[in-house]
Amino acid sequence: MDYGISNVLQLLMFSDVVTNTGNREYHELYDDRYLQVLIQLRKMGLLKKEDIQRYDLLSYSCAEKRFRYLVEWDPSALLHPISHEVYQFITLHTVIPFEDFGLYLRR
User: Which residue segment(s) compose the domain that 26 sits in?
Assistant: First the structure.
């Protein structure tokens, strides 16, 4: 299945879930590591707030910490649609409780 990944930022959001969906410890370790990369890119000015929507990063975020980091930075990104294919993958593999999405929309 082609998830439409076209740049490194999307790959950072999507990585590890595709290759190791059954190992939660592995997933959390890499979620932490990739989150630190995103934080460093932001500090260096290489990741900008507008990149979240420009590259549809929430659609590729299948990891809780990375998803929350981006949503806390840009809650309005939740208002943009995601592709049906990515939505199906996220709903099957994400660890973010559905009710948490509403918390960001009420801010």
Answer: 8-105
